[in-house]
Design a protein that fits this description.
Protein name: CRS2-associated factor 2, mitochondrial
Strand content: 5-15%
Order of helices and strands: HEEHHEHEHEEHEHEHEE
GO molecular function: RNA binding
Largest sheet: 4 strands, mixed
CATH superfamily of one domain: YhbY-like
Radius of gyration: 32 Å
Structural class: alpha+beta
Helix content: 25-40%
CATH class of one domain: Alpha Beta
Number of strands: 10
InterPro entries: CAF1P_plant, RNA-binding_CRM, YhbY-like_sf
CATH topology of one domain: Translation Initiation Factor IF3
Distance between the termini: 118 Å
Strand order of the largest sheet: 3-4-6-5
Keywords: mRNA processing, mRNA splicing, Repeat, Ribonucleoprotein, RNA-binding, Transit peptide
CATH architecture of one domain: 2-Layer Sandwich
Organism: Dioscorea cayennensis subsp. rotundata (White Guinea yam)
Shape: globular
Length: 344
């Protein structure tokens, strides 16, 4: 009973305290001059960074490709898995056309322009580093816990990797590149494209670890425009890597070599995304005593097996005979080589 009496006594006071507030809110809402602006709304700041007009123009003197180290411009595809009119740089974002494989330079690059580009790169690199400076940079960036690292995988030196390198160069003098997979078969090719496409200089190389130096006079605000590739284009269709009948042999001889390779012990077992730096030398050494070799590529993947076969064909050189069950069978090739014996 006492609670009911107290509630009845406080009811008029409650109405008196709420009335002025409700009247004030009604007046504010009825006033047309005041705008509904919350007190903590974020005010957008004007961007001071100027946006590049589209389409982008780049003065880089080479054709833009998805992968520079894992593609051969001299080999033309026989078909495409997607229409070549769809550029991976996006519609209307680049002043270069896309032919299904690359975005070629729109104008011819003469000898004078190449010489000027070479002089510009030398000016950016500046004076050569001393041994003490090289040792200091190597000690700073060669360790596995370095936070300025780029992982180079089976696609090799890609176009967007150039953008990543320059982004690291904004705040550090060098960048650590860790190479794994198929590109490690030919590390010289990887190093060439890194220096050629970025303009830097390799100051350290150990097995699959590379340190890429930007140069003494590098200015990130003065670097050339590198457009970003928005998606990975579908790989074109190339001619068959393995022929049914090897050139210079009959069908029976080709079949005999394939059976011999499948039944022979594996020279080595390759792992997925491994380091294949010494594979070429071991294959060359094994070909001195055997004409057919087998490489066990279990769990490597069918596409990577074919890429390994292409690399070995060009580097050893040799003739790929068979890709079956993630096994690579390669032939030394040539009847006149020492140690070759034709089985009758």
């Amino acid at each position: 009973m006492n609670r009911i009496r107290v509630a009845r006594l406080l009811r008029p006071l409650r109405n008196l305290t709420l009335a002025p507030t409700s009247r004030l809110l009604s007046r504010c809402s009825s006033n047309g001059d005041l705008q509904d602006d919350p007190p903590f709304s974020r005010i957008p700041k004007p961007s001071s960074k100027p946006s590049n007009p589209l389409p982008l123009h780049s003065d880089l003197p080479f054709d833009f490709r998805y992968s520079y180290s894992e593609s051969d411009p001299s080999i033309r595809p026989i078909g495409f898995r997607e229409p070549p009119r769809f550029s991976p740089f996006g519609p209307g974002r680049l002043d270069r056309g896309w032919n299904g494989v690359s975005a070629p330079v729109t104008r011819e690059v003469g000898e004078m322009e190449r010489a000027m580009e070479e002089e510009r790169r030398k000016a950016v690199l500046g004076d050569p580093l001393t041994e003490e400076e090289v040792a200091e940079l190597v000690e700073k960036y060669r360790h596995s816990d370095c936070f300025r690292q780029i992982n180079l995988g089976k696609d090799g030196v890609t176009h967007n990797m150039l953008v990543d390198v320059h982004n690291h160069w904004k705040r550090s003098e060098a960048v650590r590149i860790k190479c794994l997979g198929v590109p490690t078969l030919d590390m010289d090719n990887v190093c060439f494209h890194l220096e050629d496409k970025t303009g830097g200089k390799i100051i350290y190389r150990s097995v699959n670890i590379i340190l890429l130096y930007r140069g003494r006079n590098y200015d990130p605000k003065q670097r050339l425009i590198i457009p970003v590739m928005l998606w990975k284009p579908h790989a074109p269709i190339y001619p068959r890597l393995v022929k049914n009948v090897v050139d210079g042999l009959t069908f029976e001889e080709t079949k005999e070599l394939r059976d011999k390779g499948l039944n022979s012990p594996a020279l080595m077992k390759l792992t997925r995304n491994g380091v294949y730096v010494n594979v070429v030398d071991r294959v060359r050494e094994a070909f001195k005593t055997s004409d057919v070799l087998r490489l066990d590529c279990t769990h490597v993947g069918r596409n990577d097996c074919k890429k390994i076969g292409v690399k070995l064909r060009d580097l050893v050189p040799c003739v790929p005979l068979l890709f079956k069950g993630e096994q690579i069978v390669i032939w030394r090739g040539g009847r006149n080589k020492p140690g070759f014996q034709q089985n009758s």
